Amino acid sequence: MFSNKFNISNYKVSNNSKTLIIAEIGINHEGNFQRCLKMVQQAKKSGADLIKIQVLNPEKNYKKGVKSLDVYKKSILTKEEVHNVYEFAKKKNIKLFSTFDKENFAFIKKLKPICFKISSSLFYDYYFIREIQKENKPILISTGVTDLNDITILLNLLSKSKNKKISLLHCRSLYPTTLVKCNLSRIAYFKNNYKIIPGYSDHTIGFNAAIASIHYGAKIIEKHFSFDCKRIGFDHKISLEPKQFKNMVKKIREDEKLIGRFNFKIDDDKSDFKNIKKVSRQFILNKNLEKGSKIKKSDFNLIRIKKINNFSKFEKIIEKILNKKISRSLKKGHQLLVKDFI
Questions:
Q1: Closest CA to 246 of 30, 41, 44
Q2: 125, 241, 250, 331: which sits with the fewest CB atoms below 10 Å from its CB?
Q3: How buried is 234 (Cβ within 10 angstroms: 0-12 exposed, 13-18 middle, 19+ buried)?
Q4: Structure pTM?
Q5: Which residues pair with 59 in a beta bridge?
């Protein structure tokens, strides 16, 4: 239904790729342009592949009296400042994109972001998302306030577009999200049932959930970033400071090595092959056999030997050669090989 691999800028995204790690600055710059620039630069140094900021008009998105309205009004960057943040990122070769509202979509398009992000609050604006899809850029969609029926409806609608570069990010719109509410197993459900590249937008305190998410198949992880997690308000509480973020990235990369590839074949690495030869057991005759005699299970044992001259996957075909005739006389202690049989 959707692409099983696509690029976001120069990053490859697939179920076999490295996890794409996003630092969500969001509104943690608190409307301070210079602080925003510093955060963008520091997030990159902390190991983030992509950086995200929020661009919206609070007056058009929140009713008067709602607490979020006051928070967002204190965190607005002007369009000129947002433009300059994007220009700064380009000069520093930092990959930047945004969440945004309808009013700012045209403005965001002009900034040529590397992808588009649909926040949980815009999940139900199906037709707006279809408009974004026409830009033919990757789209990341958070699912913080949805159920499976909602997700199915949206994906069925989006599947009609030529742009199949969609990733579904598991998310809980709880700030903070407690560990018992994370339900990371939904990430694997997205991957297996929707055949879509899954991700995770983390709102927990700390980074354990973000690291754990890759074991359920998350290939894109979004985590909030702050200079001071103890600051009151905004998204500081659910964020990571630079050192914490860097530590999270390190642990994710370590766990990626542990997960490895879904592969039951012997690795091509010569050292691995040598070790396998050392620990492998081979079929060794426990009696002399004359040419033309038929071999029985009681004629050999599976034994680990010091040196294997002819490493053989003999055990794979043992059932096929039982009761077949020996092509030549063999002595006790001989390592059985396929060529020994007629």
A1: 44
A2: 331
A3: buried
A4: 0.80
A5: none
